[in-house]
Amino acid sequence: MTPRSADAGPYDALFLYSFGGPNKAEDVVPFLRNVTAGKGIPDSRLEEVGEHYYGFGGKSPINEQNLALKAALEAELADRGVDLPVVWGNRNWEPYTDDAVDELERLGAQRAVALVTSAYSSYSGCRQYREDLAVTLQKRGQLGSAGSTGVQFDKIRSYFNHPGFVQANVEAVLEGYARLEAQGGAPAAAKLVFVTHSIPDTMEAASRVSGATYAAQHLDVAEVIAGQVAAERGHAVEWELAYCSRSGPPTQPWLEPDINDLLTERAGEGLRDVVMSPIGFVSDHMEVAYDLDTEAMQTATELGMNAVRAGTVGTRPAFVAGLVDLLLERAAIARGEDVEQATVGDLPAFRSVCEVDCCLRRDGEPSGVPALCSRDLTR
Ligand SMILES: CC1=C(CCC(=O)O)c2cc3nc(cc4[nH]c(cc5[nH]c(cc1n2)c(C)c5CCC(=O)O)c(CCC(=O)O)c4C)C(CCC(=O)O)=C3C
Ligand SMILES: [Fe+2]
């Protein structure tokens, strides 16, 4: 147990840093422009993705989910006697990174610690956040040769192999199995299919600079979750990893198999029961609501499968408590203390300060953009 009244010093604020999403139909196109600026995503894909959002009235669930996570973090911090304001900001929608820095300044924060809503390390889940933060500070005239000249930022390590994240996923998968059973499925014969966001092969290759690649991080956590689920349920659990939400030109290779292709292939081999666990996402945002709940579920139904989609970690207590543990761990590291970094699985704790060329967008191609919380720009 972490003691009550734990110390978050030297930090005076927690920066909850997320992707952002549209709140209404008029937001969709400007949001997509923000996401795709300079990324070479074909117009056809953008129109398709726009339709996913319009199908939900133009509103992504992600902002409300982040507000719920913020409230849960505030409650957990208060419960542990940690007096630390939580400021929320997004890369691609309001409140933007710049708005969050304004808010941190208004609160008088001098040293904030960033918590990104992505559990894995790759360009999309790590460096892109650190670049956006650096560029935001640069535009504000607050980026010096060693980092920020205004509010200083550190980042909490990628937390895919932290016990809190894993425990919350195990609970969600067990609930998924119970639902499969309730709808007449055969849990002991089911396949557990973990799902995450596909990324280009070259982004996957670049992610090895941080240690295990993005895909390897998923495989490591999947093995642990499946093992715990098997132990809890008392039967063997066969599992696989699949991907969703690929974009980019069709000629560019991305991580495979796509969840729909995997379901089709396995159905052909006689598989009837599936539990899909979206371990790549921390909440049920649009990728989950559309790519899994709408598209993959339709595929499974057409194939005559008995499928359920397990929950995401969201605001599950084990996840939220784990995030606060990670925050306190990062604070102890910042204070120069020797800390034991809790992990599960075979991989070590991810580094808290990134390598200079960690998680580039494309393997071997320097980004040309500064990134905070790395060895060159420490804060
Ligand atoms: C690894 C990863 C995560 C998980 C980690 C994390 O959570 O950060 C993630 C999350 C998210 N991705 C999201 C939305 C989008 N991602 C896009 C495009 C892309 N994502 C990529 C990767 C990831 N993305 C990549 C390699 C691209 C190609 C362009 C590029 O290289 O950047 C596009 C453009 C259109 C399209 O191509 O789909 C959109 C609209 C939303 C918001 C959902 C909502 O609104 O509820 C969230 C949480
Ligand atoms: Fe990184």
UniProtKB/TrEMBL annotation:
It catalyses: Fe-coproporphyrin III + 2 H(+) = coproporphyrin III + Fe(2+). Keywords: Cytoplasm, Heme biosynthesis, Iron, Lyase, Metal-binding, Porphyrin biosynthesis. Transmembrane segments: none annotated. Pfam families: Ferrochelatase. Its main location: cytoplasm. The keyword Lyase applies. It is found in: Cytoplasm. Pathway: Porphyrin-containing compound metabolism; protoheme biosynthesis. Its EC number is 4.99.1.9. Fe(2+) binds at residues 197, 287. Gene3D superfamilies: 3.40.50.1400. InterPro entries: Ferrochelatase, Ferrochelatase_C, Ferrochelatase_N. One of its GO terms (molecular function) is lyase activity. Fe-coproporphyrin III binds at residues 60, 129. The keyword Iron applies. NCBIfam families: PRK00035.2-1. Belongs to the ferrochelatase family. Involved in coproporphyrin-dependent heme b biosynthesis. Catalyzes the insertion of ferrous iron into coproporphyrin III to form Fe-coproporphyrin III. This is Coproporphyrin III ferrochelatase. The lineage of its organism: Bacteria, Bacillati, Actinomycetota, Actinomycetes, Micrococcales. The gene is cpfC.
